[in-house]
């Protein structure tokens, strides 16, 4: 079962502020609702080759996975691939100017296996709902009140 989901939201903040926040794994638990914990593995600045360990709840299960940043264009794009996960995924964050704010787009692609293959028809919809909730939370966290 293949998953290919893209969701975007406009956020009423300048692109550098949005990019700085979402491209720092230390902020992930503040806007990605399924995450219980996040830990950057290794030392040094976040960039290509950085690995990030995450513990999350998804479809009623606890999952542990490690993503590796494979591309980082500050202010524009971040691409991560799973190197340890129940199913291989690639997640892409893209940011563009949108009027007075930023258009944040997340695309998640991958192939399910094991339990997640059995849940196939629900998987894409669950991934979409999760990303939609995350982007809604990102708006709440970053937009001025």
Describe this structure in words.
By secondary structure, the chain is α+β, with helices and mostly antiparallel strands. It has one domain: START domain (Alpha-D-Glucose-1,6-Bisphosphate, Chain A, domain 4, 2-Layer Sandwich), CATH 3.30.530. It is 27% helix and 46% strand. The chain contains four helices and seven strands. The radius of gyration is 15 Å and the shape is globular. The mean pLDDT is 90.
The secondary-structure element order is EHHEEEEEEHH
Share in β-strands: over 45%
Which parts are unreliable, with pLDDT below 50 for 5 consecutive residues or more? none
Write down the domain tally.
Answer: 1
Helices and strands in order:
Elements: E1 2-11, H1 15-22, H2 28-31, E2 35-41, E3 51-58, E4 61-73, E5 77-84, E6 89-98, E7 101-111, H3 115-118, H4 120-142
Antiparallel strand pairs: 1-7, 2-3, 3-4, 4-5, 5-6, 6-7
Top keywords for this entry?
145 residues; alpha+beta; Alpha-D-Glucose-1,6-Bisphosphate, Chain A, domain 4; 7-stranded antiparallel β-sheet
Concise overview:
With 145 residues, the chain is of the alpha+beta class. The protein has helices at residues 15-22, 28-31, 115-118, 120-142; strands spanning 2-11, 35-41, 51-58, 61-73, 77-84, 89-98, 101-111.
